[in-house]
Each structure stands twice: as C-alpha cells, then as structure tokens.
Amino acid sequence: MSLLSSSLREVEAGEGLLLLSDEDSQQFSCAYGFEFTKICSCGVVNVVPSAAERQALQAKSNNNHNHNSKLGKEEQLVGEESSPFILNSESILKIIKYTYSLGLLFFCLYLIVSGIWAEETPIAMLLHPVAALVIMCLLIFWLGVTEGGQGCLVGLQPIEKELYSQTHPRAFLCATLAHEGENLNRFIIGRQFLVVIVVFCLNLCCTTVENAVDVPGVSPAVAAVVLESGLAVMLITVMLGQLSAEVTATNCMLDFVNCHVVYATTLVCLAIESSGLLHSVYIVPDFMKWINTKKLSCRSNKPSSSKKKNNGTKAASTRTDKERTWYWIRVLCSFVILALCFVVTMSAILNEKTAKFQGLPVSGSVIIFFGLICFLGMLEAMQIALFAVVNLPESDLDEYPVAQQNCRLAFRGNNFQAFLIGRQICVTMSMFLLARFTTTEVDVESNEETVLGMGVGLQLFFNTGLPGALITTIVASLVWRIVASTSPIPFMANPLVYPTIRLCLVLEASGVFSASWLLADMLKSMVGFELDEVYLGAMGQRGHGKIMSGEDEATEGSSVTDSSSSESDAGSNESPVVMGYGSVMHQSSDSLTV
C-alpha cells in the first residue's frame, strides 16, 4: 500500500492508476455512477470498477489528460511512463512522520526488551525475563482487544443482529450479551477498571526501577530517561495496544469482535461491575438525582417536571427491598475499600514508599499526584462534555463565552477527531504516571516496615498497584465523567479546557504515534479483516434500525441523570452511560488522518 496523502484516492483505470483528490473523486463518482470506498485507515483507497466503468473511466481520463490545469488539482495518470507516486509536501510530511514514528517504536521496544532481559523490571525480577516478555505481549494484546471491542460493541448496537448472525456467529453472541438490558453500560464501567489494571501491570512489566540498564549502542543517560521515566512503555502501549486496535475496529467491527477473546473480555467486564467494587461511583449520580428531585419539587407547577418526577417514582417503586438492600451494601463496601486504598496510598506517598521518581520531594509527589488526578479527570470529562454539546445550537452557549470559545476550537475542521486521538495519548500517559505514584514499593523480604503497619500479605497486595488502579478508575475517571455529563456547558466554561485541547492537538499533529495507522493496516492484512460494508452493505441498508453516528451515540449517552436514575432503580444494573473513545472513531474514516 502506497504511503500517500489521505486526500488522495487511488483508482484502477485500465492498465494504469489514476490518483484523484477529494473534489475530483466526487466529480468522477457523479460522472460514472460509482462511489469510492475507503478501505485503508491511512486514507488510500483502491476501487476496482466494473468493465464498462473501467472503459468509460479510461476514455474520460484520456480526454482530460491535457486539461488537468483547469481542475486545479494534482492529478496524474500512473502508467508505463509515469511514476506511481505523487510527492507533494503533504505526502512527504506524512512519510516522514511514519518513518520516525516507526523508528521510535522499534527503539522503545529494543530498550524495553533489554531492560526486561537484564532483570531490571519488577516482573522480570520476580519471575523470569522470558515470563515477563510473554506477560507483556499478552497484556498488550488484551488491551487492544478491550479497547477495540468497546468501539465495536457500541458501534454495532443500532444494527440488526440478524444481518450478521450467520456470517459472524461469535460476534452475534457477543453483541447479544452486551446489548441485553443495561449490560452495555455495565460493560463500559467494568472495562474502564480493566484497562487501568492492564496499564498498571504493563508498568510493572516494562518500567525499570533500579539502576540504569546497560543497553548496547545506547547511552546510559538516554536509557535511564526513556526506561525509568516510563516513556518507552507509554509509547508502545498507545501505538500497539490502543490506537492500532481502535483504528482497526473502526470499520472492521464484525471481524474484530468475532472471536472468543472479546466474548470472554465482555464477561470479565460485566463480572467486575457486578462485584460491586466500583459501586461507590454511583453515590454521585444518586446525589445529583436527589438534588434534581428537590429542584423539581419546587417547580411542581410545571407539567414536564411533574411528569419526570412521577416517572422516577414509578421506576423506584419497581425495585424490591432485597434489590435495594443488596445495592446499598455494595455501595457501602465499595466506598470503604476506596477510602482504605486512598489512606494507604497517601500514607505511602508521605513516607516515600511508592515507586515515584527518585529525588522528588514529598511535597512535589503530593502535588503531582493530585494534579494528575485532576488532569486525567478533565480529559475524561471533556470527552463527555464535547459529545453532549456537539449537536446543540451555538446560541445555547451565548451565556458562556468561554465555553463558546472552547467549543469553536474543538469543532473547527478536523479538530474534534484530532483532539480525541491526542486525548487518548494524554490519558494513557497520565495512567502510567499515576501507576508510579500509587504503587507502593516495600521490600518485605528485607523486613522493611510496611505502610501503616499492615500485614505482609496485605502489603504484597498493595505492591501490585491494584488499589491505585481502583483510585484512578473511580476518582480520576468515572466521577468526572458523571459530573461533565450532568453539566456539560458549565464544565466547558472552565478556562483550563482551552489549553488542554491545544495540548491534545499538538500531540496528534506531532506524528509521534503515526505508526499506529500502519500497524492497523498490517493487522488487517495479516488476519484478513474485511470492511463491515462487505457483510452489511451500505450504511442505509443495514437493517431497519437507526444508524447512529458518533454524535448520535454521544447524545444518547450524554444525559447521565436520567440514565443513572433508571439504572439505580434497577437493583444490580446501576450504571451511568459513560462513552469511550473507540465508540466514535468509526463515524468517519477521514478522522483518522494524522
């Protein structure tokens, strides 16, 4: 596949190839009655027209060969005497990005493998370098399945399942399970915790915590900075475990989800949510529901308010005493566990018993810890808030000039899609940094004093970083999403939103993670993934249900108050609708350009 600009279209025309720009491809589509279908996430399309269309296209292209200047575009017939590439500034820049992104990826892999083989990472020291490498590969694979699977399950929700029940039986079973009742919302909640756990475990597998690794051909200072800081594992996690899988899943949802691993992952996510470990997050929507009920009681003279109140009362009456008791038991247990994890983590930070960076003072550790929680929370909340306001008229933002300015920046051109990609990068990096600050590091074998005098077994459990993963999931992610979905416009009025959007746009434009798109193309070719259109036809032909775009899905998931109310009244299915990044990447293939 040629590494060309995403604005080019590659079409077979007789014996040669015709490269068209976006506007010209539309002209040729209208002239010859067939559309150009995007099959590559890099933006290069290869369409084979029928024999009659090929003859017409060949004749037309020959007639227009001397009139390319009128079109004002860079068109070129690629035949026996012409080059198969059009090298303009945009395509050259993209090739440069792909080249140094791949080089950086291989360099980071080389450093990580060297660190693991030298037994300088926690898992390698505990087990064996080979075991650490195998665990790392499995974790990256599982992370990709989890990230891509979420987008597939959300994207397949409006499509009639009978359309793919025969061709993709495992995808049918997985979608049936995930779309039953409130299972999709519960899956997204459990998935969030699972992703954080996988990221924390990757940190233990790949990040060196001892002396600098002696890597052949690499300066010890460079190896120390890239490995001990966690920068290397951040890069491979984003490119190999997240973006490449999400890009692949954008338009190959059926093939991607048609495997037993996705089904098993769905069961694990549902089990995590059902365990009640994350139920403390439901205190927030319940509290907001109580506040809204009080406000509605003061406006009982309004018919709409009365109707909402009656609906909520009716839903609450359907919950049995047993369900209500079991729900609050899980909420209380989750809150107690979260408070215990928070107390132990803060005590470890204050006593310098975490895997934080050496030489960092205690005060700096505390500031960075809470700063990372707020930064990660803002990134999670901004996604939900932008989805909530994407379809609102601009006049609704007149009372919030700061929010209006932030939204104009986010929705200008392709900024929204670029922000989502840059946001994903920032989220992963923040998770890795939080893993360093929340994972306790106590050597119990040398009789080192444990945190708060806890037992050795409990201290070993805290050394795994799982309690920190719980803090990150609830305090730095889900709570912020709920708040943003309840008040999206006031949240967008936060002056810190603007520089955060700019940061995400800069990261996406840097091209550091451009290799993700090449890796996605390689993955599709190796496993033989086909476009969803091959099985389902055009968008308008996929069943009788509404085919929702990313904005429609976001709008559906933006009202957390009503959702959480009905879920809280359902006993064990109390989960606010929390959308993920992968669920909107399928809305437009053009959004994947770097």
Report how far apart the termini are.
17 Å
Number of helices: 26
What does the main sheet amount to? 4 strands, mixed
How would you describe the shape?
globular
Task: Please mark out the parts with pLDDT under 50 across 5 or more consecutive residues, or reply none.
Answer: 1-50, 64-84, 302-317, 543-594
Radius of gyration: 26 Å
- Write the H/E string, N to C: EEHEHHEHHHHHHHHHHHHHHHHHHHHHHH
- Strand order in the largest sheet: 3-1-2-4
Helix content: 55-70%
Number of β-strand runs: 4
Question: Please, what is the average pLDDT?
Answer: 74
Residue share in β-strands: under 5%
Oligomer: single chain
SS content category: mainly alpha
Task: Walk me through this protein's architecture.
- This protein is mainly alpha-helical.
- The protein has helices at about 20-30, 50-65, 70, 90-115, 120-125, 130-155, 170-180, 185-205, 220-230, 230-250, 255, 260-275, 285-300, 305-315, 320-350, 360-390, 400-410, 415-440, 455-465, 465-485, 490, 495-510, 515-525, 530-535, 550-560, 560-570; strands spanning about 10-15, 15-20, 45, 75-80.
- Strands 3-1-2-4 form a 4-stranded mixed beta sheet.
- Helix 7 (about 170-180) runs parallel beside helix 12 (about 260-275) and helix 16 crosses helix 25.
- It is globular and about 65 Å long.
- Mean pLDDT is about 75; it is low at about 1-50, about 65-85, about 300-315 and about 545-594.
